[in-house]
Amino acid sequence: MDAPSDDIDLFDDAVIRDPWPHYGRLRALGPVVWLPRHGNYALTRYDTVRAALRDHGTFCSGQGVAADRFGCTHLQGNTVASDPPRHSKLRGAMSPPLQRRELIEIRPRIESIANELIGRLVSRKRFDAVTDLAQVLPLRIVTEMVGLPEFGRENMLKWAGAAFDVLGVQNARGQAALPAIAEMRGFIGQGVTRETLKPGSWTARVLDLADCGKLDSDLAPFALRDYINPSLDTTISAIGHLIAQLGACPDQWQTLREEPLLIPNAVHEAVRLGTPIRSFSRHTTRDIEIDGVAVPAGSRVMMLFASANRDARTFENPDAFDVCRQSRPHLGFGAGIHMCIGMHLAIIEIEAILDAMVRHVERIEVRDTKIKLNNTICGFEHIDTSFR
């Protein structure tokens, strides 16, 4: 059976600003839909996406995870866009300092920064919850731990945004991002040395592993890129969605203030609803049938995480923000071997912000929001906010 077809451009500005009705239409068409504009199949429903993510043998990442051939090729070979054994080597090199037990040591510092930040924002009449809140804590912590020299620290956000644009399609945004990608690669090739990196940092550790033969030297630049690119935008996006939802749902904020033990739920609910990474693609290694639809070997298949996370077949009243929801099986952090490597750090950072808010903020007012136009990241450019 052929897949149902939809002529949507998922990277059109209007779709990026309000993708949810479009995802609903795609889910109604079926679990797999052909998108002729992108030359991709799209997996739209929760069970289908989750099963594909857990079957990396059939849905491989090593041929790239963008939505077009250029993006797949240009950013091929990093942790996200690789298969075992390469993926296992990269992830094994990068993951130890990001494990929950290792992050316990820096949690008090994260909580201290969050308390200071929220206290300062309460004293202001209004602020931008993106630049004045969502970006502040991740930038302080991640840039410190990654340990790049000044030029790298100053450009991490720009480089990450560019990488996520290229991981979509090469529309005007994707093409405009290429100089920033080239700049980042030039910096890693020339500006990252033992002398320029912070001693004991995550990036210095990568060089140590390469020096002692525990990481292939040709993989080290890819590990360095992966500490730069995905470590900020996703967390910043999730914090933005959290503030926007709490501002729009004062009853949920009141519930959270009365029951702070629900803070972990609220974090996961914000990630589920916002789904910072809307989609990545995979390539099929064999002919496969999905719900009666034949998908040939060599097909590029988009994993629509954002659509799957609002599938009413899995989540009751899926468009509602509910801090009491047990939404941990969401796909906002992915699934399978490519589960987000920085997930634990992101959760700790967002929990610290919420914990400080519960103790210092009685009321959240959100007056205006503006969606950031990026080909992959679902986030905000601006959130006009007040804490009372």
The largest sheet is: 5 strands, mixed
Oligomer: single chain
Instruction: Tell me the structural class.
Output: alpha+beta
The N- and C-terminal alpha carbons lie at a distance of 57 Å
Total helices: the number is 18
- Total strand segments: 10
Helix percentage range: 40-55%
**Percent of sequence in beta strands:** 5-15%
Order of helices and strands: HHEEHEHHHHEHHHHHHHHHEEEEHHEE
Low-confidence stretches are none
Outline: globular
User: Could you tell me the mean pLDDT?
Assistant: 95
Q: What Rg, in angstroms, do the CA atoms define?
A: 20 Å
Q: What is the topology, as strand order, of the major beta sheet?
A: 1-2-8-5-3
Mind explaining what this structure looks like?
This protein has 18 helices and 10 strands. By secondary structure, the chain is an alpha+beta fold. The strands form 3 sheets. The chain has a 5-stranded mixed β-sheet with strand order 1-2-8-5-3, sandwiched between helices. Strands 4-10-9 form a 3-stranded antiparallel β-sheet. Strands 6-7 form a two-stranded antiparallel sheet. A hairpin with a 4-residue loop joins strand 1 and strand 2. Helix 12 runs antiparallel to helix 13, helix 14 packs across helix 16 and helix 16 packs across helix 18. The radius of gyration is 20 Å and the shape is globular. The model has no long low-confidence stretch (mean pLDDT 95).
